[in-house]
Amino acid sequence: MGRLPRAALPWLPLALLAAAGAPEAPVSAPRSLAWGPGLQAGVVLPVRYFYLQAVSSEGRNLTRPPPGPAQFKVVVKSLSPKELVRIHVPKPLDRNDGTFLIRYRMYESVNEGLKIEVLYGDEHVAQSPYILKGPIYHEYCACPQEDPQAWLQTLSCPTEEPQIAKDFASFPSINLQQMLREVPKRFGEERGAIVHYTILNNHIYRRPLGKYTDFKMFSDEILLSLARKVLLPDLEFYINLGDWPLEHRKVNETPGPLPIISWCGSLDSRDIILPTYDTTHSTLEAMRGVSNDLLSIQGNTGPSWANKTEKAFFRGRDSREERLQLVQLAKENPELLDAGITGYFFFQEKEKELGKAKLIGFFDFFKYKYQVNVDGTVAAYRYPYLMLGDSLVLKQDSPYYEHFYVALQPWKHYVPIKRNLADLLEKVKWAKENDEEAKRIAKEGQLTARDLLQPHRLYCYYYRVLQNYAERQSSKPEIRDGMELVPQPHDDTSVCQCQGKSPSREEL
């Protein structure tokens, strides 16, 4: 690949690229910047992506969309004319701040490599064309990197994840025999939502415990996706597929807490947290099976700040009583708040009194300047998406958290509101009266979320959790009675030939 200038290296904090510039200045294609994991052959992701920063001829980063008719366009094709491959390259996503998000999904692998042309008008941008030497594998190609450390370095994974360190502090060692004795009895009864996994020789085996384990498709698909990319450590563990974290024993109790893996944590539990099934599925199925994902949302954040409706906005199900209070507040203060319940399940008797709001497309949320984030049964899993918009998030105080909350600070990345919503209207009024400060907090939150929620970071996080877990296990994992192999998906439409190996039967 062409050499990137230091300022355009893939993993620079995005906040550094929001330097003030003159938005009316023309774009200089050669001075504009391109960076990101999609410009590296070794980073295999369901959707590959990279970023562009429009830069003026004076060398200043533009902070608003470039003027004039010329647009960025990207062409991704095989280096060899003999290799005809399917690659979906949608239009660049304009993030409304002078930066653009480029995505492409490969449906076949290439042996020779890829040529990526990035153009502004008819001129090449930065170091374009970028040459990525093959082989370059598509998502369903099972060609794992056998050196996990090299894989972590290729992805520029952080060396430390504060939430992982915090979660494992309670578990300096993991007694697998205790887990085998206790977990099925404590959490695997009929109403349980636990799945017992063993990873051995990079194969995934599992047995569901309990009645509510349908969501295992989400844990299956990310573990299989990881195993296609990197050699996983051998380990045996239990994943909780329910909403609520499970382990409430204290560290000093006897017996002590068990390291159950969950999608959501809480202040009074000891579960080890992974990214939620929602953000995981959104990453795996981007540009394919889901309409809202962590990348597409970045180019669909509504009108500019000045043109957004100056109200706080909420839509959602009735999964928490505070959500009903929110609707009542909106009825009494329509000039400050637009809130509605779109489906009644928990409080059906309230529908007649509060009314049922029509469903609204998620991208339309960002027509409003302020977004209210209120818990559902646990943490509201829409929060990552709200953070990636360019509205100010008013976040309810909560005992629940997702894997990335530890990096966020109130009044820097969001505006906090009390659990009982008593200060919500006051905070909305504050935001209206302090528009520049509200805009600054919204932008800081957005930039931080863009960094933390990049798809490659999700893979880093999953691997680090599995790695930490495996290092602490005091006995060898085994394939237990009742476990079945979770097969890698078949891809009959393309041949996958791993470097130095013959194509496997299931890949032909």
Automatic annotation (TrEMBL):
Q: Which residues form the signal peptide?
A: 1-21
Q: Where is the Glycosyl transferase CAP10 domain?
A: 231-476
Family matches, as PROSITE patterns = FILAMIN_REPEAT (PS50194)
Annotated Basic and acidic residues bias:
482-493
Which pathway does it take part in? Answer: Protein modification
Tell me the keywords, alphabetical order.
Endoplasmic reticulum, Glycoprotein, Glycosyltransferase, Signal, Transferase
Filamin repeat coordinates: 24-134
| Record's catalysed reaction(s) | L-seryl-[EGF-like domain protein] + UDP-alpha-D-glucose = 3-O-(beta-D-glucosyl)-L-seryl-[EGF-like domain protein] + UDP + H(+); L-seryl-[EGF-like domain protein] + UDP-alpha-D-xylose = 3-O-(beta-D-xylosyl)-L-seryl-[EGF-like domain protein] + UDP + H(+)
Could you tell me which residues belong to the region Disordered? 482-508
UniProt key word Glycoprotein: yes
Name-wise, this protein is Glycosyl transferase CAP10 domain-containing protein
